Amino acid sequence: MTSRTDQELWVDILAGNNKGWEELIRRYQSLVYAVCMRAGLSMPDVADCFQQTWVLLYKNRKSLKDPSRLSAWLVTTAKREAMRLRKLADKEPEDTEEMIWKAPGPLPDEELEKIECQVQLELALGAIDERCRKILHAFFFATEEKSYEDIARSFGIPANSLGPIRRRCLEKLKRALIDMGYIEERKIDEEPL
Amino acid sequence: MSRKELLMAARRKGEKISGHLAECQECREAVSLLAMFDMAGRLPLPNAGEGMIQRAASIAMVKPKLGRVKEFLAELIFDSWTVPHPIGVRGEGALEHRRIRFQSESTIIDFRAEQKQTGWNFIAQFGIESVSNSILIAEKLKLNPDKHGICQWVGKKPPRNMMLLVGDKIIKLPELTWKKPRKK
After folding, report:
1. How many other C-beta atoms are found inside a 10 Å radius of the C-beta of residue B120?
2. Longest Cα pair distance anywhere in chain B, in angstroms?
3. Which of A101, A173, B46, B166 could form a disulfide with B134 if both were Cys (CB 3.0 to 4.6 A apart)?
4. How far apart are CA A79 and CA A53, in angstroms?
5. What ipTM is given for this predicted complex?
């Protein structure tokens, strides 16, 4: 996986590089899809929401001021598109079968932020080696009840070795997050709470 | 510190750091990352699927310059709606299903449409050499095929008009009607 920042990709896109555009879509497809999907739209509307979000990004590519905020831009745009399609769908007569797909309403901002963070973390995990990726994936994503011992056992690592391995892996992850522009170096070095 | 303690510490925003955490730089860094990425118990995000990704990727594709293009009209050579299904053959879980094949010189275009409860699913496949240089236009949608020459998409209605752009060639497909012929 590439570790090019969004800004670097954006330079490519502005230069008319189609490969850069596709790379950007692959990078954030799950982010846009999740926002559209969880807004309670029918499948054809989810597909429209997904497509329209990318159409709007492409149309506005020359006026986008800060490419480092691309993921936030995509979340906001996908949410607006989902709300627009939801309004249109609500005006149409309801199909009982289709109701199965409908969620109560658009996602709250807090959940949208979480989805954005999740994508950034998954992308950074994808940029580090496989062993660290698996261990840290469990460290971040396992349910709260899972202890270090449980995680160590699932990877066949002695529990007392997990600490040093985790430290090295977190260091790699931190570097990947900084390199990808998702966090700033000083933020991590500051007091955490 | 245990994982649970780190997770709890990450959620106590604004509280004064004390005890082991105050002395352990490594734990503070772990807590800091957990505070930024509080993901415990979250499921992986769903993928959009190759069809949607390809469709979005095609937005940036350069349109062929008019004036240089050669236009061809494809011929309809097979339509499953015009032939009776063999006994016992039905689409799996589909309300409606149609397979159509077109040909223009050596180019074969297979098109499948399947109506589900939630809308229509479409797959078009074309046997051409330069798939990277081609775009399928279905009504207003522009789709570029994957490396196998396949386009997949979903929609509320099936397309009436489609055309395939291959390099400097436009292959127009005959207009499709979606009124099923009555059984005799």
Report:
1. 22
2. 85
3. B166
4. 9
5. 0.83
